[in-house]
Amino acid sequence: MLRIRLSRKGKKRQPSYRVVVAEKESKRDGRIVENIGHYNPLTNPPTFLIEEARALHWLSVGAQPSDAVRILLNKQGTFDRLARVHAGESIDALVGEYQGVEVAEVAKAAPVAAKTPAPVVAEEPAPSLVAEVSEKVGDAVQVVAAPVASAVDTVKEAVEAAVERVTDAIEAVLDADEEE
Question: What does the entry give for GO biological process (predicted)?
């Protein structure tokens, strides 16, 4: 039985994956039947690209996607198009639709169907970690800054009052020395 699954590539702690068609019993990175795309979870947002025509072909002949690949194919809309293939529409027309080519042009431009579509972005990009941390730190600074500013003003007034009392005391001592 054939599976559409991920095959790991990349360095240690820097995974990237190929979307491959392989026998169910073969090893994760072992012998494959066909490479039909790639998936990079390290980009923000994660990106993937799966050849729509080949995915539809393998799904239509009975290949089963793994859970991870099923999620990617759902995001790409492949399962909706697969139902339409089963209903009788041609794979070329659906691939052209996926790539933005009108159905009338697909018959004329068969090479267009062989082109690789642009990478699909997984979802709306989440705010970056740096932006979130900056916002939280800014909020914390505002919460702490108000009491600190109040304390600084109070200390400043106390110091000015103390300086004034010391100045008055010095003047009083100097006046007493002049009277003697």
Answer: translation
